[in-house]
Amino acid sequence: MNFLIWWDGDESRELLDGNTVTNFDGEGRGFTASGCTSINGSKSVPTLSADLFGDWREEVVFLCGDSLRIYTTDQITRRRIYTLMHDPQYRANVSAQNATYNQPPHTSFHIGDGMREPPRPDITVR
């Protein structure tokens, strides 16, 4: 296992191995993307994992035959964090997944037990 994903409603990451998300805290398996495959042979990684659709939890993209499938969580969270794509380090890590070394993206601030409010994004619209 070499991939992590913020999937459910808590601040801990889940394990992403092949096409299966597993909840590490012992509350059971997240899901398996039936009919989908991972990429990169023995690394067994998704096509992409990233916060694509809004809140801070991540989606995962898998190859399924001749198409791509995007999976997102259906679990509710009490934690309110802006979209992770507003964090420049996270956005650069997402870009690197498809251009260099395929590893999960990481934020420039801590998300997890005992976390503080994340820094306000430095975004300017002109």
TrEMBL record:
<dbReference type="Pfam" id="PF21348">
    <property type="entry name" value="RGL11_C"/>
</dbReference>
<dbReference type="InterPro" id="IPR034641">
    <property type="entry name" value="RGL11"/>
</dbReference>
<dbReference type="InterPro" id="IPR049366">
    <property type="entry name" value="RGL11_C"/>
</dbReference>
<feature type="region of interest" description="Disordered">
    <location>
        <begin position="97"/>
        <end position="126"/>
    </location>
</feature>
<feature type="compositionally biased region" description="Basic and acidic residues">
    <location>
        <begin position="113"/>
        <end position="126"/>
    </location>
</feature>
<protein>
    <recommendedName>
        <fullName>Rhamnogalacturonan lyase family 11 C-terminal domain-containing protein</fullName>
    </recommendedName>
</protein>
<feature type="domain" description="Rhamnogalacturonan lyase family 11 C-terminal">
    <location>
        <begin position="1"/>
        <end position="121"/>
    </location>
</feature>
<feature type="compositionally biased region" description="Polar residues">
    <location>
        <begin position="97"/>
        <end position="106"/>
    </location>
</feature>
